[in-house]
């Protein structure tokens, strides 16, 4: 009888210790997931009018990223650049149709255009503001949406998206969904 009582006390203490250890191990994981530095400033309010940041304005609606040297069309595909911003509605395409449209645009424009990679679009994402997390002077009237990009690394060439609200990226969305996209000049 005494042995059973001692065994029960031992298991109870072990159970309490195990729970304490688990709590100590799991607490940091839970806290890491908390958003202590939530950003809720709109980029249109955060970035001063006319401040192009890392971009220089080029002719024909193109902005050059002075950090990477990439030349971006300032509007999403399907829109046209005007002095007042991007006019029209972005064309939304399934992944399978994007390459054909880029090829057609490249032929008509006489210069090669391509999709940005996930890293290229992420690199121009503004980290201090959102909705969309792009410089509104360089990319006027940008829509908040998942924009097609090309995957990198293990996902090289695969369909991925960058969510322009905050710059989050994913390679797990369905490829048959119609999405807008930006274009960069091919080098």
Keywords:
4 helices, single chain, 2 domains, 18% strand, Mannose-Binding Protein A, Chain A, 187 residues, three-stranded antiparallel sheet, alpha+beta
SSE blueprint:
Blueprint: H1 2-32, H2 43-46, E1 55-57, E2 62-65, E3 71-73, E4 80-82, E5 85-87, H3 95-109, E6 113-114, H4 118-123, E7 146-150, E8 159-163, E9 168-170, E10 184-185
Antiparallel strand pairs: 1-2, 2-3, 4-5, 6-10, 7-8, 8-9
Q: What distance separates the N and C termini?
A: 83 Å
Number of helices: 4
CATH topology call of the largest domain: Mannose-Binding Protein A, Chain A
* CATH architecture identity of the largest domain: Roll
Structural class estimated from helices and strands: alpha+beta
- Spatial extent as radius of gyration: 24 Å
Query: Which class of the largest domain in CATH terms?
Result: Alpha Beta
Relative strand content: 15-25%
Average pLDDT: 87
User: Which bin fits the share of residues in helices?
Assistant: 25-40%
Count of distinct structural domains = 2
Side-by-side strand order of the widest sheet:
1-2-3
Q: How many strand segments? A: 10
For the biggest sheet, the summary is: 3 strands, antiparallel
Poorly predicted ranges (pLDDT <50, ≥5 residues)? none
């Amino acid at each position: 009888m005494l042995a059973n009582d001692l065994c029960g006390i031992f298991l109870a203490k072990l159970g309490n210790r195990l729970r304490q250890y688990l709590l100590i191990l799991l607490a940091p994981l839970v806290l890491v997931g908390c958003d202590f530095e939530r950003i809720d400033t709109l980029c249109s309010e955060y970035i001063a009018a006319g401040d192009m940041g890392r971009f220089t304005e080029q002719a024909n609606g193109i902005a050059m990223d002075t950090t990477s040297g990439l030349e971006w069309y300032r509007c999403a595909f399907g829109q046209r650049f005007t002095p007042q911003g991007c006019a029209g509605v972005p064309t939304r395409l399934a992944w399978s149709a994007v390459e054909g449209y880029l090829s057609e645009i490249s032929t008509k424009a006489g210069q090669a255009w391509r999709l940005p990679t996930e890293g290229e679009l992420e690199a121009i994402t503004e980290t201090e503001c959102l909705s969309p997390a792009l410089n509104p002077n360089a990319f006027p009237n940008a829509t908040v949406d998942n924009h097609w990009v090309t995957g990198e690394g293990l996902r090289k060439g695969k369909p991925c998206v960058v969510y322009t609200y905050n710059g989050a990226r994913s390679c797990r969305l369905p490829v048959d969904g119609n999405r807008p996209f930006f274009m960069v000049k091919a080098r």
